[in-house]
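Dear colleagues,

As part of the handover before I leave the project, I'm documenting each prediction I ran so the next person doesn't have to rerun anything. This entry is a single chain, and its sequence is reproduced below.
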Amino acid sequence: MKLLKSFFLFFAFATLISCGSDDNTPVFELTSENFTGTYAVTKLRGTNKTSTTASGQVVDISTESYEGDTFQVDLILSTNGTFTYSGEYREVAVTTLNNGSAPVQETSIETENSSGTYTLDVLNKRVTFSDTNTGVIHGIFEITSFSANTLVIRKESETTDNQITTTEEITITFERK
């Protein structure tokens, strides 16, 4: 009886170990060839925070959070290192001032019409866009997700103009067409 029980436990243990992952899905590697293509925007979300320094202390002025929807925007990445980013989408932005007033919501239709060059940094998973009119797709973006069907890019930047500092964060999700 003990032998049968031991054999049964051994068999159950061996079965569990042999049932490893059946996920044989090939990894879609980030390469220049795999990166090129036509993508549709499916999600766009960001924030802009403005602040200044007074008496050595950072003072927040406002925060604007925005999100896009109803996308009709395409990103075309060509093999020669050029891109176009064009179309329209609806944007809902909520601005909150640091003075205690109620947040203000604005809805607008945004039109994108950018083109230029891009450089893919496979090692650091970044893409740099240089466009003709410094639109949404401009600067260095981190590639946070890349697969055969999806591309997600994220940018954080900070600019200072006349003692006003603006910190921008934007994340854009694309689906390959």
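The beta strands are 37-54, 57-77, 82-97, 104-121, 126-131, 139-146, 150-161, 164-176. The helical segments are 2-18, 32-35.

All the best with the project,
I.
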